[in-house]
């Protein structure tokens, strides 16, 4: 392998580690369940950009840079990079997944659903994909489909409060208030740090009975 190729491979590896670590660093706002991901640093973004410039045919690097744009909420630029990556590796489940998320950020919900469905068929472990499809259905006010997707996510991630909270929201939208309250109570057992917010939400839903 050439020195240039080795350097590019090293940069991609560093980026994957940095972005992977930041991906799991999430926290809850005081506002109910608004999840905010940590901002990518200028250093990470510049490193990703330089990596793609060094080798524009490296689809791994394009995915890394696309994710950097995605987390900066620059969804159009992210989508373009994920599409480029898929031209080189059309069955890449990660690029397909993030392309779907980027389309959701652009409020292109039909496209988002198309790519997320493709990602489900490509992924060996589609847990998070069902959750994302539920979010797309909610954005389209298709609450019945949202419930179906969230239930599939719940089967695979039964102790995940995010899934329970989202499913509760879909049940509430469908007028299934008892089911929504039960799920919010369950979410509190799995995430004790959210109990105060969840109790406020439960009281709000109870008032709709």
Describe the fold and architecture.
The model is unreliable at 2-8 and 10-40 (pLDDT under 50). Strand 1 (26-28) and strand 2 (35-37) form a beta hairpin. The chain folds into 2 domains: 1-124, Serine Threonine Protein Phosphatase 5, Tetratricopeptide repeat (Alpha Horseshoe); 128-209, Alpha Horseshoe (Serine Threonine Protein Phosphatase 5, Tetratricopeptide repeat), CATH 1.25.40.10. The chain is mainly α and 209 residues long. It starts with a helix and ends with a helix. Strands 1-2 form a two-stranded antiparallel ribbon. It contains 11 helices and 2 strands, in the order H-E-E-H-H-H-H-H-H-H-H-H-H. The chain is elongated, with a radius of gyration of 19 Å. Helix content is 74%, strand content 3%. InterPro entries: TPR-like_helical_dom_sf, TPR_rpt. Pfam families: TPR_16, TPR_7. TPR repeats lie at residues 59-92, 93-126, 127-160, 161-194. This is Tetratricopeptide TPR_2 repeat protein.
Any chance you could write out the topology, listing elements then pairs?
Layout: H1 3-24, E1 26-28, E2 35-37, H2 42-54, H3 59-71, H4 75-88, H5 93-105, H6 109-122, H7 127-139, H8 143-156, H9 161-173, H10 177-190, H11 195-206
Antiparallel strand pairs: 1-2
